């Protein structure tokens, strides 16, 4: 099953989570600066691409289109 094989997107999600949390604490909370794509855009795109690929061929993919 997919669950027993582990989450192939775990590393990408962890990288995005770390980046977002760092941005939130260091930029938003301290300086109240808005989100900019360059803040964690690359990490988000990598995670989103992995997640989207994982949905291919599933019923969920059809729902989110």
UniProtKB/TrEMBL annotation:
It holds the Pfam family UPF0203. It comes from the Eukaryota. The keyword Disulfide bond applies. SUPFAM superfamilies: Non-heme 11 kDa protein of cytochrome bc1 complex (Ubiquinol-cytochrome c reductase). GO terms for biological process: intermembrane lipid transfer; phospholipid translocation. GO terms for cellular component: mitochondrial intermembrane space; nucleus. Keywords: Disulfide bond. PANTHER family: TP53-REGULATED INHIBITOR OF APOPTOSIS 1. Belongs to the TRIAP1/MDM35 family. This is GCK domain-containing protein.
